[in-house]
Amino acid sequence: MSAVETARASVGDGRAPELPVIAIDGLTKTFRLPRHRVSTLKERALHPLRRTVYDELRILQDVSFTVGRGEFFGIVGRNGSGKSTLLKCLAGIYRADAGSIRVAERLVPFIELGVGFNPDLTARDNVLINAVMMGLSPREARNRFDAIVDFAELREFLDLKLKNYSSGMQVRLAFSTMVHTDADVLLIDEVLAVGDAAFQQKCFDVFHDLRDRGRTVVLVTHDMTVVERFCHRAILLDEGRIALVGDPIDVGQRYLQRNFEAPGPLPEPENGDEPGPEPPRVRADIVDVWVQDAVGRRVEAVVHGEELEVHCLYESHEAIDRARLDVWIDSAEDARVFGASTMDWAEPPRAIGVGERLHVRVRLRNPFVDGRWHVGCSLLAGSAGQDIVALDNRAASFVSYGARDVYGLARVEHQLSYDRRPAEGPG
Ligand SMILES: Nc1ncnc2c1ncn2[C@@H]1O[C@H](COP(=O)(O)OP(=O)(O)OP(=O)(O)O)[C@@H](O)[C@H]1O
Ligand SMILES: [Mg+2]
């Protein structure tokens, strides 16, 4: 572990980092795919000496990271970036070409629909066999059978062969079996993608519980709100290489950026004399966005009910005649709980000059319940504010804490009261 990694590992759970439970160093994985397969007798007779030529597909390249005991560790990346391959190497399903993988504790994988499940057996048999494969004794597996089935809510379908299960039902059963084993390290690949809303909520409850009990979890997901909510750290894989390690919020943001970038390099001009396409001009920079407390200190956390101030600093690269300024605050699940705007001002901010800096502030009493909150801001132009000059949906974040007597997303001014009446006697 590098010094930086060690420092970060201790941030999430507040404990001093211990020896890593998983240490991966220089992992490289290549698949060899035959380019031309000799498949018929005639071909073999015609080309007796033809050797099969292979294409080498380098899927993982020099991947190194560590996961500490009790860490909730996220792996994100676009489709085909190598996440499942990495998990399969970790689980020992694939052999790496180079590099080392060390896992210090007992590990169970939940990797793909039905890995280790036999479609021709009933759900009942599959659960018992799978639980034993995951390290339980046959007696323990029988003892936990009811809990596994109840968690998956599939009691009525126990004697159905697995091949007749829907993909969502298979995931429920496999995930339920996994969480009822005693493994120290859980590898989880996209469990949320196929479950319905009720099952997703169950998964979240399990994630909370695993985190609280200090189990080590490596989670692959495309849901960045889940990464932010549960992970202590995360990595971003990009074409088989680690593009970023560290804070889940940074990793999530980079992942989203990477998703919406144009694929591949910009096109070259066709002949050398013609200029290429103009790169898009940056019309204004969002220089800085931050949150302050009542006495003007930059803060990461704000007590519920206290004053807070959101600041956004822009630098304009073009003259803006009529500007519209917006600042908003979203929950971790992207609910927009509050937004402030100059949209209806009789006198909109006018005549912002080239190179001018614009400092926008919003002051409010923190109404938000406990959790992480994201600040977004935009600078729009045009009479109807139709022209985006600068926009960042998640420019900064803070944690709210200390909310009492309320729940939901935010406090609404209210009075809660009751009165009592003595019971009326009979007759
Ligand atoms: N057994 C295999 N043989 C050949 N190529 C494979 C094999 N398994 C995976 N690949 C290739 O490796 C690359 C990475 O696949 P992988 O399944 O690890 O991606 P992923 O990041 O999990 O993607 P997704 O988000 O879609 O689940 C893909 O190009 C895929 O085609
Ligand atoms: Mg995958």
Report what the structure shows.
The chain is globular. The chain has 427 residues and is an alpha/beta fold. The protein has helices at 3-13, 41-46, 83-90, 123-133, 138-152, 167-179, 197-212, 224-230, 248-260; strands at residues 20-34, 54-68, 72-77, 98-103, 107-110, 185-189, 216-220, 233-238, 241-246, 284-293, 301-303, 307-316, 320-331, 336-341, 350-352, 357-365, 371-381, 387-401. Helix content is 23%, strand content 34%. The longest helix is centred in the middle third of the chain and has 16 residues, at 197-212. It has a domain at 284-401: abc- transporter (atp binding component) like domain (Coagulation Factor XIII, Chain A, domain 1), CATH 2.70.50. Helix 4 packs across helix 5 (138-152), helix 4 (123-133) runs parallel beside helix 6 (167-179) and helix 8 runs antiparallel to helix 9 (248-260). 32% of the residues are buried. The model is unreliable at 1-17 and 264-273 (pLDDT under 50). A six-stranded mixed sheet has the order 5-6-7-3-8-9, with helices on both faces. Strands 11, 13, 14, 15, 17 and 18 form a six-stranded mixed sheet that branches. The chain has a three-stranded antiparallel sheet with strand order 2-1-4, covered by helices on one side. Bound molecules: adenosine-5'-triphosphate (ATP) and magnesium ion.
Which homologous superfamily in CATH is the superfamily of the domain at 284-401? abc- transporter (atp binding component) like domain
- What are the distinct ligands in this entry? adenosine-5'-triphosphate, magnesium ion
* CATH class annotation of the domain at 284-401: Mainly Beta
Rounded mean pLDDT is 85
Number of helices: 9
CATH topology of the domain at 284-401: Coagulation Factor XIII, Chain A, domain 1
Distance between the termini: 80 Å
**DSSP strand (E) fraction?**
25-35%
Oligomer: single chain
Largest sheet: 6 strands, mixed
Radius of gyration, whole Å? 28 Å
Strand order of the biggest β-sheet:
5-6-7-3-8-9
CATH architectural group of the domain at 284-401: Distorted Sandwich
